[in-house]
Amino acid sequence: MMRVLVVDDEPQLMRALRINLTARRYEVVVAADGATALEAAARHLPDLVILDLGLPDMDGTEVIAGLRGWTKVPILVLSGRVDATDKVDALDAGADDYVTKPFSMEELMARLRALQRRAESDANADDPVVLVGHFSVDLANKTVTRRPDAPADVPAAVHLTKTEWAVLEVLARNPGRLVSGKQLLQEVWGPAYESETNYLRFYLARLRQKLETEPSHPRQLLTEPGMGYRFQP
């Protein structure tokens, strides 16, 4: 049974989350402030964390930083803050996804399932093979080849540049996770380039053109406006 730590100081929302998560066979641990959340995480070792940013004793980003000091547990931020800066700050602190209040329970559960799949994927090989469009992408051998079930007019192989590989690898190694533009720039180009968002637009467009079935309507190499990018398996 998956254990979820829910951190929120709104009693009604906490109750609704507990009922819905329990009904879906999650074990639920709750905390109403940041200090209790960090203590509960250390004691119960949750598989997933749902976290509000507006806590009474500290900001949610501090809780994220505290958790990231010792665990890679997937963290879903659930917050009423809609400003893009707040979202990016949470993602840069180490959150894996962000849902804005008010929200539908169906969307929340879908995001949790995606994070759960990602956590399970992380337990597999360090150099996975991922599927993008009609292609099989081998991250270990750095090859892109046509899938057996692809149409005959699809190229047998695709060449990616060193930078295209670097961008794709960051996204592919975080399946389903929202990766902020700042994080992507830092990992590929370094801290001095964290404001060069035009680099990301250019290379994501190139990757979509080479890999997506419909580059103008991407289904896997996604842009989340004002927040970042996501590889959707």
Automatic annotation (TrEMBL):
CDD domains associated with the record: REC_OmpR_KdpE-like (cd17620), trans_reg_C (cd00383)
Entry keywords, A to Z: Cytoplasm, DNA-binding, Phosphoprotein, Transcription, Transcription regulation, Two-component regulatory system
Gene Ontology cellular-component annotations: cytosol; protein-DNA complex
Modified residues (4-aspartylphosphate): D52
Main location: cytoplasm
GO molecular function list: cis-regulatory region sequence-specific DNA binding; identical protein binding; phosphorelay response regulator activity
A single BP term in Gene Ontology: positive regulation of DNA-templated transcription
Domain Response regulatory: 3-116
DNA-binding region(s), chain positions: 127-233
A Pfam family recorded for this sequence: Trans_reg_C
Domain OmpR/PhoB-type as annotated: residue spans: 127-233
Top-level taxon of origin: Bacteria
Compartments, as annotated in UniProt: Cytoplasm
Annotated protein name in UniProt: Response regulator transcription factor
